[in-house]
Amino acid sequence: MYEFKEGNFLSAITFYQKAENTIPYISDEIERAEFYFKMAEVFYHMKQTHVSMHYSSQAYNIYKTHDLYSVRRIQCHFVIAGNYDDLESHEKALPHLEQTLKGARLLESKNKRIYGQALFNIGNCYLKIGELTKAAKYMEKSILQFKKSKEIGDKVIEC
Known about the structure:
Blueprint: H1 2-5, H2 9-20, H3 29-45, H4 49-63, H5 70-86, H6 90-107, H7 112-129, H8 132-152
Helix pairs in contact: 2-3, 3-4, 3-5, 4-5, 5-6, 5-7, 6-7, 7-8
């Protein structure tokens, strides 16, 4: 994780791949999900889209069985949608972004920032599709959420 944070992606991949060999011995499925999510992030930043989506899906399949991991489920969909965005398959990104919006709406009272991120990402997707009116609507809503987030001081994990 240190190497990833420092931008040394190749080194990070080497360490992650070594760690992946121990996954069968890890009995805590949330720890496995966290590992898969980190792998999804690394491969996303390296623009290895299909590998990133694979790991994100693995993480999501574990998180969806645990109610307390709603933010991580949303973040998994963000990663998958971001990968589709990189592939310029914006129509394929939309269902994932709609899932994030649905999940984030349920968290709105507790976490305005994640809700703002969901609104922004779906607005950005509509912008890339060329649906400017929809894009503007979501972007305006996201700005309001980010302002509310700053007023309350939401603390969330960045995606």
